[in-house]
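Tutorial, part two.
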Amino acid sequence: MGVVLGLPKRTLIVIAVLVGVIVLYVIGSNKQAGNANNASPTTPAANASQCRVTVTADVLKVRAAPDVKSAQVGSYKQKAEVDAEKVTQNGFRKLSEGHWVSNDFVKPIAGRDCG
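Running the prediction step on this input gives:
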């Protein structure tokens, strides 16, 4: 067995693994903190002016454009709550740029302005 810096190889491997775990933990916590800073306002007045919907379908496909033949770019499960825009087109509600869902399978949350 080799000895580096006066420590056996096994000890060095354990230390390296622990350092790796700590680095990954720190990176993960920074990402979570960054997401918290980008979260939408939680004050009642701010929330009331935002459109938010609940998914009523078992699985709701998210499309790239307001067309059933458009590429699927995601999906939501039943009862998911999603921020949306007031824009509807061709029977679809716009969630964000390049994200549309069938308006038949979402229900505006009470007290939200979904136009």
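The longest helix spans residues 9-37. In part three we will examine how such features are distributed along the chain.
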